[in-house]
């Protein structure tokens, strides 16, 4: 092993960990919704992408500042999250779990098609910040824009933790997540909590979508499938329902895919990531931080 | 006297009626990806076909075997760049009264789709579909050889890149090394790098010092760009579609990779690349069989734009195909009736097979015996957000 190999290994790990925060955010979104409703929202990645396009429209139409574009992307995604909740989860029969799952698959395809039709499938430039900023530590380069992505995702996670553990809304959310019937008996409006959860998860997804597009510098509908698949892998590895698990899972998947890319090339990279998923599903189906706790 | 004049005029009018009235319609189907992430190819082809049909109809339509006039009509079918859907779409088109189909847009659809057609005409043992297909977009080389019912009006990438690297060798004698970047999971991108660009570059004395691979929906190119930076190539060739081309160009910019010459994939000489990353794409050189360099090409571009599309090297072929088919319809003696449909389709096939030259927007296209075309081309480069002609090998 030569010097350049070690440099590449460190560089790949650093890039992967920084980019992995976007996977972590998507994973948190999946896990939040699952934690509260015990249902998977497969339209989540597509909704995040659609929200990102809302920010893009502001950028292309009004040449809006990147901060406004990112904010609009996050809020837009939150709003679409609410629509997804109302269309796929609010009114579907609770005793038939496949209904909401399949409805969310339908919504995934629907949102994807709408985005493709509206954008004609064209890639559009998406604003980046600190694009040309590079921190050079010898032969290791740390991208300023990825550091920004990392910072934004960490801030989003910090706000989420504050919301969940320091506010009445968070208390209600955790109560519904643990004992929905008991929470309802205590006067908590479960429907409202569910809606808020979809809204917050949507905002996180929008931030992830915006940060992914900002890191690439281009927004294209092809990103949607990546967000969905990576998000699902992250929650399986981290443990469905566990927010710390989603964070660790996101960083792990980000680093692993970059290291596999370095070691085995792009054509085998995803094989090893999927193998990792398979190993977790077989040997540790609850993921790294999966809780065995049950609820009523 | 007046009565006889009236009767004569009426008889003449009645006799001439079929010649003047254009109550017949000749249907030409278009198909390809008009939705999905590469849907822009089909949307542009559909617009180009509609604009060309409108022009022909405005000039009186096409003349049929009996001397009567018929209007052309076209309808575009979406195959979503999916091979199974493409096959199903072509079977559906063959069951309609369409005389010929123009498409598909994706090489990964074209290859299996051509396989369902009869390989050799008049081979009684081959029960393959007997329906003429005149391809406009799917550009991967050599596909027309799969069936004698297939004709293509796509540019020869092998010829274009061979001449491009010869020209680069001549204009940049100090450039010695080349580094390739390829979108590994897209048939056209792979084929063009491994079988066309790389071969042409080596043939003209460039040393390949490395290759970077990525996938169609990748979002992180830092690993790939790092290898490129270390190799310090004089020429970088990117064989990828606009989304990842833009991603890679941005990463190259970030890692301060500044080759003397940047070469792109034919399909990237489109609006998409300029929409996505005009600044980073500045200076990229691409050979293309279409640029609005003469009055006819400019008029065609304007007509297609009025239909909501863009004329690029792919959709220009769709325009040309309709114009070529008009000539073939008139030369082959198409009857245009329901009873003659099978026979008319065969006449179209035979008519296309006998062509040795066909009109094109940049000049005459040579028609090859294997159903392929050799088209005139130019080298364009991205300059201030536009594609500008850098060199015209034909001039």
Give me the CATH superfamily of the largest domain in chain B: Response regulator
Strand numbers in spatial order across the main sheet of chain A: 1-4
Could you give the order of strands across the largest sheet of chain B?
2-3-1-4-5-6
Order of helices and strands of chain B: HEHEEHEHEEHEHEHEHEHEHHHEEEEE
Number of helices of chain A: 11
Question: What is the average per-residue confidence, as pLDDT of chain A, rounded to a whole number?
Answer: 89
Summed up, the helix count of chain B is: 12
Strand content of chain A is under 5%
Number of strands of chain A: 4
* Quaternary form: heterodimer
Percent in strands of chain B: 15-25%
Ranges of chain B where pLDDT stays below 50 over 5 or more residues in a row are 14-21
What does the overall shape of chain A look like?
globular
Distance between the termini of chain A: 55 Å
Q: How confident is the prediction overall: mean pLDDT of chain B? A: 91
The major sheet of chain A is characterized as:
2 strands, antiparallel
Total domain units of chain B:
2
């Amino acid at each position: 092993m030569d010097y350049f190999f070690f440099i590449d290994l460190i560089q790949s790990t650093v890039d992967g960990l920084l980019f992995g925060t976007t996977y972590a955010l998507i994973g948190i979104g999946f896990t939040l919704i699952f934690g509260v409703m015990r249902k998977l929202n497969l339209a989540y990645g597509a909704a995040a992408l659609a929200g990102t396009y809302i920010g893009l429209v502001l950028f292309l139409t009004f040449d809006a500042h990147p901060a406004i574009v990112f904010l609009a992307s996050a809020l837009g995604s939150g709003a679409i999250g609410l629509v997804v909740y109302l269309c796929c989860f609010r009114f579907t029969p609770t005793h038939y779990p496949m209904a909401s799952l399949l409805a969310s698959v339908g919504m995934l395809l629907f949102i994807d098609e709408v985005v493709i039709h509206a954008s004609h499938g064209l890639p559009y430039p998406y604003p980046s910040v600190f694009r040309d900023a590079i921190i050079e530590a010898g032969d290791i380069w740390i991208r300023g824009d990825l550091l920004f992505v990392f910072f934004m995702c960490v801030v989003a996670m910090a706000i989420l933790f504050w919301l969940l553990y320091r506010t009445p809304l968070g208390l209600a959310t955790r109560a519904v997540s643990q004992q929905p019937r008991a929470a309802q008996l205590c006067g908590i409006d479960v429907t409202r909590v569910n809606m808020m959860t979809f809204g917050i998860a949507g905002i996180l997804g929008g931030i992830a979508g915006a940060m992914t597009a900002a890191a690439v510098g281009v927004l294209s509908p092809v990103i949607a499938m990546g967000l969905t698949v990576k998000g699902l892998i992250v929650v399986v590895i981290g443990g469905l329902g566990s927010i710390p698990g989603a964070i660790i899972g996101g960083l792990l998947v980000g680093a692993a895919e970059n290291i596999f890319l370095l070691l085995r090339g792009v054509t085998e990279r995803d094989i090893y990531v999927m193998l990792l998923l398979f190993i977790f599903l077989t040997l540790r189906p609850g993921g790294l931080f999966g809780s065995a706790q049950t609820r009523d | 006297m007046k009565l006889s004049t009236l009767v004569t005029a009426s008889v003449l009018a009645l006799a001439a009626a079929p010649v003047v009235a254009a109550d017949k319609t000749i249907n030409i189907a278009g198909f390809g990806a008009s939705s999905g992430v590469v849907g822009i190819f089909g949307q542009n082809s559909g617009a180009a076909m509609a604009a060309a049909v409108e022009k022909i109809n405005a000039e009186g339509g096409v003349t049929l075997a009996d001397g009567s006039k018929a209007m052309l009509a076209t309808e575009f079918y979406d195959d979503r760049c999916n091979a199974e859907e493409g096959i199903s779409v072509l079977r559906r088109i063959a069951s309609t009264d369409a005389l010929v189909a123009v498409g598909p847009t994706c090489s990964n659809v074209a290859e299996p789709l051509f396989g369902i057609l009869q390989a050799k005409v008049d081979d009684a043992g081959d029960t393959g579909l007997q329906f003429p297909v005149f391809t406009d977009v799917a550009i991967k080389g050599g596909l027309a050889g799969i069936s004698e019912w297939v004709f293509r009006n796509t540019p020869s990438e092998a010829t274009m890149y061979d001449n491009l690297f010869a020209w680069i060798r001549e204009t940049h004698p100090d450039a010695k090394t080349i580094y390739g970047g390829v979108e590994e999971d897209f048939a056209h991108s792979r084929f063009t790098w491994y079988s066309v660009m790389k071969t042409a570059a080596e043939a003209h004395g460039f040393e390949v010092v490395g290759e970077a691979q990525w996938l169609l929906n990748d979002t992180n190119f830092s690993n790939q760009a790092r290898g490129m930076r270390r190799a310090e190539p004089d020429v970088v060739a990117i064989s990828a579609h606009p989304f990842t081309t833009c991603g890679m160009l941005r990463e190259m910019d970030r890692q301060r990779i500044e080759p003397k010459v940047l070469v792109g994939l034919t399909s990237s000489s489109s609006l998409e690349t300029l929409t996505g990353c005009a600044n980073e794409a500045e200076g990229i050189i691409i050979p293309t069989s279409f640029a609005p360099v003469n009055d006819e090409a400019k008029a065609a571009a304007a007509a297609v734009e009025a239909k909501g599309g863009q004329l690029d090297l792919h959709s220009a072929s769709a325009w040309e195909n309709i114009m070529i088919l008009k000539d073939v319809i008139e030369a082959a003696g198409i009857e245009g009736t329901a009873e003659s449909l099978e026979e008319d389709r065969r006449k179209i096939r035979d008519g296309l097979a006998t062509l040795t030259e066909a009109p094109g927007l940049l000049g005459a296209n040579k028609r090859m015996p294997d159903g392929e075309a050799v088209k005139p081309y130019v080298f364009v480069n991205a300059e201030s957000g536009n594609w500008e002609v850098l060199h015209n090998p034909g001039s």
